[in-house]
């Protein structure tokens, strides 16, 4: 496995609202540390970074514009020259200009991290794969929350995370660990 010199790091929804207790139990307590390691590596190696910010349609959302939850966490503030992608739906490619920016920059490889694994991460990775990007999802730099399935059966955040990664791996993306990415 090889990380291209211009591979883009796509950092999804690292906003203050994602830390709200009402979202419930989550998995991967070290995910933010892995995200920050990757972000620092991308900055050191002058690779492109895109910070994805969700702007909700719902006033009940932790990402409703005009309140603190929509703002980036301090440790994940976009740096100078890094791309800001604002989305209104889980998929970071939908009506955002992300694909145009990547194509114009000649970027063919994406490394996706962030939240929530089963929602915005999975939606974005599916589209990236469908668009033909060499898409990597970093399993230990993503996390999600407990969720009931369609039939009302509750699943732990780790189970939801594992199923989402299983949906992606081999079809839309390659699922890897941060150690693999940093060593590649």
From TrEMBL:
<dbReference type="GO" id="GO:0016787">
    <property type="term" value="F:hydrolase activity"/>
</dbReference>
<dbReference type="InterPro" id="IPR050272">
    <property type="entry name" value="Isochorismatase-like_hydrls"/>
</dbReference>
<feature type="domain" description="Isochorismatase-like">
    <location>
        <begin position="7"/>
        <end position="150"/>
    </location>
</feature>
<protein>
    <submittedName>
        <fullName>Amidase</fullName>
    </submittedName>
</protein>
<dbReference type="Pfam" id="PF00857">
    <property type="entry name" value="Isochorismatase"/>
</dbReference>
<keyword id="KW-0378">Hydrolase</keyword>
<dbReference type="InterPro" id="IPR036380">
    <property type="entry name" value="Isochorismatase-like_sf"/>
</dbReference>
<dbReference type="InterPro" id="IPR000868">
    <property type="entry name" value="Isochorismatase-like_dom"/>
</dbReference>
